[in-house]
Amino acid sequence: MVCDDKSGGFFYLDHRTVDAKHAIITDTPVTTGSVHDSQPYLARLERQRKHFGFEVQAVGLDAGYFTPAVCQGLKDRNIPGVMGYRTPNHEPGMFYKREYGYDAYRDEYGCPQGLVPRYSTTNREGYREYRSNPDICRRCGVRPKCTKSANAVKVMVRPVWERAKEHVRARSLTDWGKRIYARRKEAVERSFADARHLHGHRYARMRGLRKVAEQCLLAAAAQNIKKIALLLAKKAKAGPSGLQGRYRCVLQRIVVRLRRCVALAMNWTLLAGARKRKTPRSRKTWSWSAI
User: N or C end: fewer C-beta atoms under 10 angstroms in the chain?
Assistant: First the structure.
């Protein structure tokens, strides 16, 4: 994995989803470090909605998920999203992209000198390309601050789903969006910190996606069991009105599924260890039954 502000190496990524109300971990898929954070997000979100019946009211994501595909996917699902701001790349001495105004009615950009890069084509990555007239740009006095292309053509790119990004950006600047993003830091970052310092999430204890996924599931199960136990204890003290019955049923379903995952992971690990031993210590066979 090679990322900005991160050391290169061989890593696994835990794409964790956390409930904002009680910080319950609802999903923890694992991928290789070469997979971008935003790539598996929509598929995992849809899986949680169908598998658990979640009615997602809003999502808070960091800047790594601020991509046109994720923004459009949330818009198609009628889920308001709030995301962190990603600072665009800028080369010193060159014009900023914001200095090229975009005319939505004419579907064209305007450069600081008044020229108009017009729409040219849409590439396979989903970006609309706007190109300037090279005959005019060659005679421009500020061309070194605009483009370094040998053919004197300024190319502007705009995602086909740029409107969805603009809506997310505008929503993130509202007071409601700021509260959602602040809650994301409290729930998600705290969940990862607890997993790292208290549940062995600092290093991958095994190799291979399946084995690392087992480690992530075990850590998530331990964290959820502790949180659910605290919630049920508060409910017992508060009486029937402590927790809503609907949410309590969801918590119970999550506990049942987590217990099954933990049982399967433990049995699979014990089976793998028994197969590797040349002289087994006992004749006991390991079953795949749940706890």
Answer: C
Q: What is the DSSP letter of 99?
A: G
Two structure tokens written together for 55: 């009615």
Which sequence spans correspond to the domains of the chain?
97-161
Neighbouring residues of 42: CB distance < 8 A, sequence distance ≥ 6: 69, 70, 73
Rounded Cα distance between 107 and 189, Å, is 40
Burial of 160 (0-12, 13-18, 19+ CB in 10 A): middle
Strands (E), the chain: 12-14, 17-18, 25-27, 30-32, 59-61, 81-83, 101-103, 108-110, 118-122, 127-131, 155-159
Q: What is the pLDDT of residues 162-207, one digit of tens each?
A: 899 999 999 999 999 999 998 988 888 888 888 888 888 888 888 8
Give the separation between CA 270 and CA 264, rounded to whole angstroms.
10
